[in-house]
């Protein structure tokens, strides 16, 4: 075994880490030889056991507990960055929006959800936040989807629908006023 993993003790909420045991001798005293921040934001540390001089690496990842999203009918489900992202991707299809812009918007939404500091967040509020990010990104994508969103009960239904290609056709067919070019430029 070459790698150890820091784990958060569920009995002690907060940034409390169990002491790392050397994988070779089981002792917990070590020294850090090298610390690197990985591309995904996790921290990798190369360590040396003070007892047996064995060397191993640990990887620390920040674990965030997202609140539950509460739907209108009372059902709860975990907040999902992936679902928000795929919804925004669909909303901005064929629009001049980079993937990085969408990911940054998702991070802002996720940070807002965390910073509320509550265990639950109404789906309606998440929906409003998603729409305001969409508006800041692209007016056309916003207007195109805002009208459709209003017909949905909550943001999850909105996001689920956006994953459906038939919904895209529905949106296009119902928003002819948003066509930017004449349909027959040279009749
Ligand atoms: Zn050791």
Describe, in plain words, how this protein is organized in 3D.
- The structure is a single chain.
- This protein has 187 residues and is of the alpha/beta class.
- It folds into 2 domains: 3-60, no CATH class; 68-176.
- The chain has 6 helices and 7 strands.
- The protein has a 4-stranded mixed β-sheet, with no helix packed on it.
- β5 (68-70) and β6 (76-78) form a beta hairpin.
- α3 (123-137) packs antiparallel against α4 (139-149).
- The protein is elongated, with a radius of gyration of 23 Å.
- The protein binds zinc ion.
Outline: elongated
* Mean pLDDT across all amino acids: 76
Portion of residues in beta strands equals 15-25%
Q: What topology, given as strand order, has the largest sheet?
A: 1-4-3-2
- The N- and C-terminal alpha carbons lie at a distance of 72 Å
Structural class: alpha/beta
The sequence of SSEs as H and E is EEEEEEHHEHHHH
């Amino acid at each position: 075994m070459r790698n150890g993993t820091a784990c958060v003790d569920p009995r002690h909420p907060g940034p409390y880490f169990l002491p790392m045991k050397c994988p070779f001798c089981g002792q917990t005293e070590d020294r850090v030889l090298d610390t690197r921040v990985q591309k995904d934001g996790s921290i990798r540390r190369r360590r040396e056991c003070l007892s047996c001089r064995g060397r191993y690496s640990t990887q620390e990842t920040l674990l965030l507990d997202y609140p539950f999203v509460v739907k209108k009918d009372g059902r709860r489900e975990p907040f999902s960055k992936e679902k928000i992202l795929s919804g925004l991707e669909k909303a901005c299809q064929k629009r001049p929006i980079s993937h990085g812009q969408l990911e940054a918007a998702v991070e802002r939404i996720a940070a807002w959800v965390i910073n509320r500091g509550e265990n639950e967040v109404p789906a309606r509020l998440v929906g409003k936040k998603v729409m305001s990010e969409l508006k800041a990104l692209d007016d056309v994508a916003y207007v195109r989807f805002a009208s459709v969103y209003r017909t949905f009960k909550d943001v999850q239904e909105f996001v689920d629908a956006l994953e459906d290609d038939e919904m895209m056709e529905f949106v296009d067919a119902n928003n002819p006023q948003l066509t930017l070019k004449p349909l027959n430029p040279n009749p």
